[in-house]
Records
---
Amino acid sequence: MSPSLNPAFDVIVIGSGIGGLVTATQLAAKGAQVLVLESYLIPGGSSGYFERQGYRFDVGASMIFGFGEKGTTNLLTRALDAVNVSQETILDPVQIHYHLPNQLNLKVERVYEKFLQNLIAYFPHEETGIRRFYDECWKVFNCLNSMDLLSLEEPRYLLRTFLQHPLACLGLVKYLPQNVGDVARRYIKDPELLKFIDIECYCWSVVTADMTPMINAGMVFSDRHYGGVHYPKGGVGQIAQKLVAGLEKAGGKIEYQARVTKIITEKGQAVGVQLANGKIYRGQRIVSNATRWDTFTKLLPVEKTPANERKWQQSYEKSPSFLSLHIGVEAAVLPHGTECHHIILEDWQQMTAPAGTLFVSIPTLLDPDLAPEGYHIIHAFTPNWIDDWQGMSPSEYEAKKEAAAWQIIDRLEQIFPGLDAGLDYLEVGTPRTHQRFLGREDGTYGPIPRRKLRGLLSMPFNRTAIPGLYCVGDSTFPGQGLNAVAFSGFACAHRIAVDLGLNNA
Ligand SMILES: NC(=O)c1ccc[n+]([C@@H]2O[C@H](COP(=O)([O-])OP(=O)(O)OC[C@H]3O[C@@H](n4cnc5c(N)ncnc54)[C@H](O)[C@@H]3O)[C@@H](O)[C@H]2O)c1
Ligand SMILES: CC(C)=CCC/C(C)=C/C=C/C(C)=C/C=C/C(C)=C/C=C/C=C(C)/C=C/C=C(C)/C=C/C=C(\C)CCC=C(C)C
């Protein structure tokens, strides 16, 4: 064996985002020899963290679904359980505090009826429509929450699930091609209320209701009141750290600073990977947790991009990335009773424009240990395209970052007066930062439809046209979100376990 050839693994996972780690832990728990290769220093990808001057900042995600205790949709709880690890979480009593145009100032309370009452108070003439719309989202959720969530590419699972839960399966078949906008307009007429439904979608799908799949909305709009939104004690980075601990307990391995530069194919089949340092690993199955754009244009030669991937790229494009402010601030700036998550928008016309909608997360309100005593963390971020940050000198880049940061701070001042004076720490990340540290082309948050599509019908599952190669993460069904990529991980591991003939597949 040549010195650069390492022994074969059953499964090699490229990337340790939550999608990659759920795949890896599920397979290790089923007895597969698994290797995860992560280019960065720590696991987690977009769910990672970094520490500065006593603050522990989350890189990206902070509003976490999937930590509930009951049902089948609590996929993060289940993923950790499967490898005998657990994570303490803190229940968030309000999912989002919206600060919207025309003084629409509304809290999405954990208790469903309270949320409905808050919304009905603004739109009393639409009470029936509001109830019917959100109740229909519950129908989707109840279907999902009644069945084991595994690979839709595994016919025996589909048949078994259909025989056990025929009505739930038929319900999901009905909703799979639907988008939220069409359902909402069936019940709601008030244009401002429809705008509210748009931002309810936009703040996690980064597209309006017309383009947001009904299945995903069913999950988000119901689970926030069922399993609830939780924050992991110690920061979002803990989820990946715990999954890695579970992976290693189950006999799996992870290597850091291991950047895969090539997926090796032989006779058209994926058989291994090559790292930037030249090392080669062989595996029976290769899983890419990199985005589809990175997988099919960087890790494989562009000219070999399968036809179905080209077709997919005609339906989906990269969403914008984010401009992110990681702020440390004196605790006195935040009034007593401030909620953890806020959405700020001053003008409906600007909702989908770059730097239009402002997302705010203040995790120290739930876990004060993430900041020095007497201080809070504010993570403020807003969609932004990488093109606006290219082709400038280092000093121009720094100046643009600073100007953009102060515009955001000015907007935050409207909600949290005194923020500027109470600033203790400020770090600005741009789409270039996301691209560099997360290995995501253009720093994208994930795929979005190029035009109105039929719900989730065109989102690819885990297998690819290249035998032996699978994808996992937010470039696969059902898209963005930690609980969504956890589903993708469960499904990917299930399909591979069947393909490898593992026990307990
Ligand atoms: N601001 C935000 O809130 C935000 C931003 C982006 C994504 N997200 C969320 O994060 C989740 C994404 O999870 P995911 O599992 O799809 O992936 P991910 O992007 O979080 O993780 C992918 C991992 O793969 C690694 N990687 C990429 N290319 C590699 C290579 N060639 N070799 C080795 N390692 C490589 C990256 O370093 C990263 O750790 C989604 O839920 C999404 O919604 C949130
Ligand atoms: C057999 C027959 C006949 C049939 C069959 C049918 C079936 C079975 C079907 C099935 C289906 C399924 C399973 C599906 C699944 C789905 C899922 C799981 C989904 C999920 C989803 C989730 C989601 C979407 C989530 C999301 C979230 C997010 C994204 C979040 C975000 C957040 C952020 C960004 C933040 C914001 C805010 C602030 C800060 C304020």
---
Amino acid sequence: QIQIEDDRTGLSIETLRRAIADNLFYIQGKFPAIATKHDYYMALAYTVRDRLLHRWLNTLEVYLKQDVKLVCYLSAEYLVGPHLVNNLINLGIYEQIRQAVEESGLNLQQLINTEEEPGLGNGGLGRLASCYMDSLASLEIPAIGYGIRYEFGIFDQEIKDGWQVEITDKWLQDGNPWEIARPEAAVSVKFGGHTESYLDDQGNYRVRWLPEYIVKGIPYDTPILGYKVNTANSMRLWTSEACESFDFQRFNVGDYYGAVDRKVFSENLTKVLYPNDEPIKGKELRLQQQYFFVSCSLQDMIRIHLNEGNTLDNFAEKFAVQLNDTHPSIGVAELMRLLIDVHYYPWEKAWEITEKTFGFTNHTLLPEALERWPLGLFGHLLPRHLEIIYEINKRFLDQVRLKYPGNNEKLSSLSLIDERGDKYVRMAHLACVGSHKINGVAQLHSELLKKTLLKDFYELLPEKFTNVTNGVTPRRWMVVSNPELSQLISSKIGENWIKNLDELRKLEGFIDDGGFRQQWREVKRKVKQDLAQYIHDKLGIIVSPDSLFDVQVKRLHEYKRQHLNVLHIITLYNRIKQNPNLDITPRTFIFGGKAAPGYHQAKLIIKLINSVGDIVNHDPEIGERLKVVFLPDYNVTLGQRVYPAADLSEQISTAGKEASGTGNMKFSLNGALTIGTFDGANIEIREEVGEENFFLFGLKTEEIDQLRAQGYNPQDYYNSNPELKAAIDLINSGFFSHGDGGLFQLLINSLLYLDHYLLFADYQSYLDCQERVSQAYKDQEHWTRMSILNTARMGKFSSDRSIREYCDKIWNTSPVPIQMKD
Ligand SMILES: CCc1ccc([C@H](C)CC(=O)N[C@@H]2O[C@H](CO)[C@@H](O)[C@H](O)[C@H]2O)cc1
């Protein structure tokens, strides 16, 4: 039994200081005189890692010993954010480390800012996966988050002359101290080739898959600590490698390129994250990435299960596998293949296990985001899976025929195969048939799923459908992001709210305490001051922390209507130009968000925001009353700066389009008030905080359906609303684009002649609502009351509540507390 030195686990300032110095020397190979800030960050990171390893390995040991049921979250994306501070908070050693670093003559904030966040996701779906991993560990639920270890994550965004420019995200170039490679757990994944059936020596009909090439999957594990518990779960991300470094057979027969491109293909598989959020590009590499990590993960689960002396009969009792949208849904066919072809289970038993094992979460209603693969491409890459999908479909449609005899319409709308055009595999249908539960991510979204996108499935299999409204982790989005507000809250109601967010309600007891309201305002102002400093340092723009910080940060997409926000800004600008002594509430409009590189309308909206900002920010007649800021490279790290500093949260999507939203929750938790439509989780936030503490506007889904049914002509609004017309005409005139009236033509035409997302229809309601916001902000005492109530009533939106619901409704798992071995 190796005696663990205190140096590795000790928490005294002295021990920590020595550990940092030791790691600088022994791991970074540096002494202070030549050490860089990054060297000190790495030395600190390894010092912290040492203090979580015991929890991690202990957790693993307990899970193995107790043969626990594991939740396996399959997600093509994880937006974990920077690890250091989150791990210090979850370990409860932030203060000790801060002192040890200070006493080492170092500045902790500088080291924190050194960390490059792993941007292994696009937006909401990826960040939700990481919030859920934090809650699973904090609730002591045994879990593994399976995904892809992209060498290059979401691009870094730079703004050049107002335009988005994508920069490769080399997040691994300086090493990653928070992961451990597990080459001993590597698995092989097949691609292409063909199948052949044979009779095994018991005369059973069997199928073997003879692949064209095989790729090796190497797992890298990252510890996911729970908050102040001994649990540390794992995020296991797969990297692809060539099986054999060089295929000499091919080389010897002169097929030099064949010998090499195997290697290249294998390495390219997990090279880069697809930067699309919603509109999909049916690229073969995307399907290869999806199949690769899903096959690695399912083989890994089966190995873990068999190692514990189980048979696969009770696999579904030991593994609850959640499909994070359709991206991993090939898993349904892959588990069938593994059970039938590799472990020789009969079809019926294999299907029973598969359906019980999987749950499917849908995150979007946008038709263009629904994954469907051309049969040709699919069959070429995954010949055995296509056979299995045909068999699944045959048996499923037999069921459909029983319920709807002779109803071919039903058959073709439910089929896993879209027979139209050059035929497609509908991945959402495979996920629905192969899962025992299907859920949306907010009440309205789950209702709309049942009424529209998955209507036929709901009518056929109503018992499968449920809802689990999204949530966010209060650890990262309050304690890590907003320590000042967290301390103020804890000073009033203690710290239990961090583990049990419903306790925030106790804050209502202090609402009549003027002193507390004053403290509340001071914290907000301090955080706004910090963001103002950041904006000045990064962009050279001076904004006043006394102005109303009106913030919209999220991916750029027409349904999120960042351009409606711009129409409000231009209208205010016009009002001041017409009446320079107009008394308006000074506002700082802050935007942030990336556009998918191929999504030109979204990129044009970024240019429009920056173009309007240039004019407004430099117009002496406007002065301090309006400022427009586009923060480049919006990611988790920047989100942690922005959410605490907002007064107003913009959640203005066209009703029925934003499945849930999670930024809306982060803003309200940090005391921002919301201006929003009756969409996604906005509805539930308004229910919880009280309609009097929420600025609602716009058409509801049913009103939109009526408007579309009667024929929506955006020009009617343009011609009948002078302020709207003036704003559009000003853009069209080239006023914001150095006279080039054509620059935003595409955007303006899409509004004037189609306006699919109903900006014109909601314009006046939005403007009127914004006026109510301005009036309300004038009464700071009342505004502060509403702000406190927003925070106090957000308990429901903790990802802990969401995870408890998944455990009860879908996974049927329960906590496994971990005792630390002394
Ligand atoms: C294939 C390209 C692609 C990539 C990502 C996606 C995601 C489903 C998009 C996404 O992130 N959806 C967001 O998921 C959040 C978490 O549930 C919700 O809060 C957002 O409303 C939803 O837009 C679709 C298509």
---
Amino acid sequence: MSTNRTPIPFSRESLEQVLKRRFFFAPSFEIYGGVSGLYDYGPPGCAFQANVVDTWRKHFILEEDMLEVDCTMLTPHEVLKTSGHVDKFADWMCRDLKTGEIFRADHLVEEVLEARLKGDKAARGVATEEGEEEDADKKKRKKKVKEIKSVKLDDDVVKEYENVLAQIDGYSGSQLGELMTKYKINNPATDGPLELPIEFNLMFETAIGPSGQLKGYLRPETAQGQFLNFSKLLDCNNEKMPFASASIGKSFRNEISPRAGLLRVREFLMAEIEHYVDPEDKSHSRFDEIKDIKLKFLPKNVQESGSNELTEKSIDDAVSSGMVDNETLGYFLARIYLFLIKIGVDPSRLRFRQHMSNEMAHYAADCWDAELQTSYGWIECVGCADRSAYDLSVHSARTNEKLVVRQPLPEPVLVEKYEVNIAKKKFGPKFRKDAGTVENWLLARTQCELEDLSKELNENNKIVFKIDSIPDSIELDTEFVKIEKVKRTEHIREFTPNVIEPSFGIGRILYSVFEHQFWARPEDKDRTVLSLPPLVAPTKVLLVPLSSNAELQPIVKKISAFLRKEQVPFKVDDSSASIGKRYARNDELGTPFGITIDFDSVKDESVTLRDRDSTKQVRGSLEDIVKAIKDITYNNVSWTEGTSKLTPFDSQSEA
Ligand SMILES: Nc1ncnc2c1ncn2[C@@H]1O[C@H](COP(=O)(O)OP(=O)(O)OP(=O)(O)O)[C@@H](O)[C@H]1O
């Protein structure tokens, strides 16, 4: 990284101009006025994303020998009903019945309370936090917010607000409604009253096929496709455990109020891992390799006490103290950290936040988000959850397909377990075409469910339950079914694996890296640079002929052919702009190296290599220069080390 990089106040406006000017990304359908939450990536954005995804594949899929799948985005209703998304994948929205404006309830509470705290700080003459810039939308809204005037709050109220904000991700709809009433939160623009929060499902609904009868959704995550292929994947892995599947693909969420550019969009690229592990042994065979890595943690008890103070600990300490639930989860937190650093995340602006008890799904054993600090605040970019056996169990129960691992036991064991005995002959006449479905439903129950059913049968002499595909409730007495605890000698251990799921939103990560790597040359604040790591930079080399003299053309062609052969992504800039301007253009594109071709190059094929960040230059043969570029880009070699055998070159002014 540059030795010249001095901290200057980050300007989001300036970054946005660069990203737009160089077409990293832009609103989709822009000439039609655009649609909120939808973006197209331009050439440098595409190349950057492709390189990040390539690094992700190498870092996780290849390094960890994961099984990659590519599943469909269109998903039938039944699958997402079973997974819980149809009923629960929702955010809370509230409407202003007069103006029709819609707000996401938690974001509204957060924005208003933050604004009031800012007003309070202003009244007390305290400077507001640096780096918390506001996007245009937020600014527009805030302009109209009457209460952002500097109004001093009581100390108790400040404490209360801070406490609410620390836990903002964990509130239910009714709790948000209570907060809105308690703190008199109205439409910030008009001060008009708002409806209490109602649930809004975030999935895009569609119909599959012309009849319109097969209801479906665009998937909101890639995970379900991986779970449904579990048995095939286990087979691919020769039935060996633990193992992981992985998938990279688009997901869709009909966000209530998309905002903050790439950070909250309606269609985005996800990279997800489902690591299947024995529930009785969540150790990880490679834990030793990462155990000493130190991470910054924000545990749930700290947030629940209204604070956001970070604790720095090694992963080893975090797991052995029980703060992180198990070794495998800890292993992935460290691997996530290493990946993010590799692609340009600033480690000092990365923290791992644990989900609070009321935020975490009831089945999850533990959950941590990798959050990156940006001018929009701390943003969740990677979720990493131990989802226990939930997903495989629910799909198994719904389809009656066993999604389990069967392992021969070293010694037979005597076990006590619940078994279902069905009076098959009576099922046919009672249930007719549904007899098989009811039978399979009973046989697919887990031991815990059987324990409950057995109790119910003993106490009431009957059990009553509901199966989705059968309209009426089903009632069975002991003539039809017996559920009893029996002793059996077993030679095989059968279990449903637990799943540890690291889930990456690529767009959020890309944007955070832009912010973390954007700076301006101290001598001129308009000469901005995107210091993307060479590994992921869209183009590695800018080829710059010193002049447009025809004499240089053959050597430019020759060097281009050599770079192509060596598979180094490059661009030629033979425009008439000054050399400094040409470099400046590429500094904004994040191109880490410049190769300058001059009249000496014609004589001896030597060239000059320029480093984007330090603007240092060295001279050498084309072969040696390309070797240095490849070493620095792909082999993690520093500029100093990579160019140590090349001749330092006096760089002229780049003005
Ligand atoms: N609307 C979105 N736009 C861009 N990326 C997203 C969006 N929603 C989720 N992601 C990304 O997908 C990852 C995994 O999704 P997950 O369901 O855990 O997010 P989430 O908890 O719903 O996010 P949030 O609370 O911010 O809406 C997130 O860490 C994030 O990087």
